[in-house]
Amino acid sequence: MTTAIIGVGNIGSGVARHLVAGGESVVLAAKDEPNAEALAGELGPLARAASVENAIDDGDAVVLALWLDTIKELIPQHARLLEGKVVIDPTNPIGFDESGQPIRTLPEGQSAGSVVAALLPAGAHYVKAFGTLSADALAAGAHREPRRAVLFYATDDDTAATTIERLVRAAGFDPLKAGGVADAGRIEAPGGDLHQFGLNGQLVDLDQARAAVAGEGSHER
Ligand SMILES: NC(=O)c1ccc[n+]([C@@H]2O[C@H](COP(=O)([O-])OP(=O)(O)OC[C@H]3O[C@@H](n4cnc5c(N)ncnc54)[C@H](OP(=O)(O)O)[C@@H]3O)[C@@H](O)[C@H]2O)c1
pTM of the prediction? Predict the structure, then answer.
């Protein structure tokens, strides 16, 4: 299986590093292909760079490690190629105002996941994942001892669930389903109770994560 990672910034590069460390093949694409080539060169033989079009074509799963506005442009351009793919969406509805303060970019109650899922062709297998931690925490949190940290995901699709569980484990985390696409907002920031920022910055283990999904609030707040 090959995972295409479109975008090699904070999140895309972190996901790529963890997957390659876990023995997964990745194909990397960016706006400027030399950025993808540089990361692929650093990661070695399990990684290669390609154009966005070729990366999507080659990937069994496609991680859209892009800002939401970019995704809105990119999906219609590549809709045909996304048919049948597992599409992994780490976006948060977050932007920054003129003073650098984070702001919500979608109306309250509307998740980035619902926006991205609605843009995809009917044959794509959508899952929200890999965006539930800050990029720094994602980079540092793999293979935590004694208990792995959890990465939550949200999907309505069994094929996507099977794939994301495998990739999250390969990346050095425990996967846990937070719900379907209707629940994607719970694992997004700002506002999601299961996003790292909704968990007081904590990375939770599987027991804590299950309790949090059930709304038991057993994690420290
Ligand atoms: N940063 C975080 O802590 C964090 C945490 C959770 C979720 N997220 C979410 O993850 C997503 C990515 O965030 P990020 O911080 O990783 O962003 P980033 O560091 O700014 O990286 C964005 C990447 O997108 C690529 N790109 C831009 N336009 C493109 C296009 N038209 N075609 C292909 N690639 C394109 C850029 O290519 P170049 O390299 O060539 O410029 C870059 O590699 C966002 O939706 C964000 O909400 C971020």
Answer: 0.97
